[in-house]
Amino acid sequence: MNNSRIEALQAMPIFGGIRKDILEYLLGASEVLSVQKDNYFFHENDQAEALYVLEAGEVAVLKLWKGREHVLRHLQQGDCFGEMALMDLIPRSASIRAVAPCTAIQLSTASFHKIYEMDLEQFAIIRMNIGREVSRRLRVADEQMFRIMMGESDIDPAIVFPST
Is residue 162 situated within a structural domain? Predict the structure, then answer.
């Protein structure tokens, strides 16, 4: 098994405290995708069936409004996206487009369900970690919304939306 991939996962907040054997299982059940610049990993409202760990490249998180896509933020190597798929099982809330050639590990919701069957404690830790990450992102979004409501129109997106 690729130790560098395991180490990369262990360094991510959503996989903190997860044993090596569980990460080896996840990686063994995963696919590594290459997505060229300007191609999409997924679109808003697509069925959510996986989360992604970006190994190389950069992506834009896009939201559709009145027929036009708007950039919410950029994610880079080591970031993950699509994690809400493991929590709410509803269609995607945003699109993810490669802004540079990308390589990402695709981890299916089915593989996480298998962890539930294999080791409930490790599954619970992953879910708790994802909940913390989603909560952290919500806190940042709430801060941005509050600043906009208070009339701060010159908000620096790098401060409001730091890299994850």
Answer: no
Residue range 14-58, pLDDT digits in tens: 898 999 999 999 999 999 999 999 999 999 999 999 999 999 999
Domain hosting 72: range is 3-108+117-153
Q: 63-119: per-residue pLDDT in tens?
A: 999 999 999 889 999 889 998 877 888 899 999 999 999 999 999 999 999 999 999
Over the Cα atoms of the chain, what is R_g? 16
The pTM for the full model equals 0.83
Among candidates 49, 46, 52, which has minimal Cα distance to 76?
A: 52
Strand positions, DSSP E, the chain: 31-35, 40-42, 50-56, 58-65, 68-76, 80-81, 95-98, 102-108
We report the CATH number of the domain holding residue 146 as 2.60.120.10
Task: Specify the number of domains making up the chain.
Answer: 1
